[in-house]
Specification:
Length: about 210
């Protein structure tokens, strides 16, 4: 912690937070899905799915930080399978969002996205690997500068993952109050479903 007596360490820490907010917090399959689920199922009904996405994204962070990503990249046949699995689940999720009934007409038996579904989407999300790798690599100090420790970087980025997804969830949940009327519910759910598919296509092919 002695490094924090150096103003350079605080500048690096602030730069890491800002970079993660911009790069990792930008719209993508995981963040848009959390927002869409929050709008379609409300805050309480989305907590399990969101926690799965958060833990899955933190798992991606650990994969990137420990160099496991380089090992995965050496297996070219694995990447298309992960992308295909992610795309298939996202299409299924978009269908569930688009066809979700209004909150007022929803019963306790209505199927809600699961924790496991959120976790699997996060670990198969191509944007997560690219964004986290970019932020992690960009946080490396120049020679001679104060270096933030690995565990500090991981802690900061993990905290940012939690904050980013919670904020996107709250944005989506704010729309839930409009979804008690059938027409408004259908329009908003269709918009979120289409946005989810679009952001996924951009992450895969962009």
């Amino acid at each position: 912690m002695a490094a924090f007596s150096d103003p350079e360490a605080w500048r690096q820490l602030l730069a890491l937070v800002l970079a993660s907010a911009v790069v990792m917090g930008s719209p993508g399959p995981a963040t848009i899905s959390v927002t869409a689920i929050g709008a379609a199922f409300g805050l309480r009904g989305s907590l399990r799915y969101t926690s799965g996405v958060i833990l899955g994204t933190i798992a991606v962070l650990l994969v990137v930080a420990t160099g496991v990503m380089a090992v995965l990249a050496s297996a070219p046949k694995l990447t298309p399978l992960l992308v295909a699995a992610s795309a298939a689940y996202i299409l299924y999720l978009a269908f569930k969002i688009a066809t979700a009934p209004p909150l007022a007409a929803r019963s306790a038996e209505t199927a809600r996205p699961t924790w496991l579904g959120g976790f699997l989407l996060a670990v198969a999300n191509p944007k997560a690997y690219v964004a986290i790798a970019a932020v992690f690599a960009g946080s490396t100090s120049k020679q001679g500068a104060v270096e933030l420790g690995l565990w500090l970087k991981l802690a900061v980025l993990a905290a940012m993952i939690v904050v980013i997804h919670v904020l996107w969830l709250l944005v989506g949940a704010a729309f839930a109050r409009f979804l008690r009327r059938p027409l408004a519910s259908r329009i908003i759910n269709l918009v979120f479903a289409a946005t989810l598919v679009l952001t996924t296509a951009l992450a895969v092919f962009g």
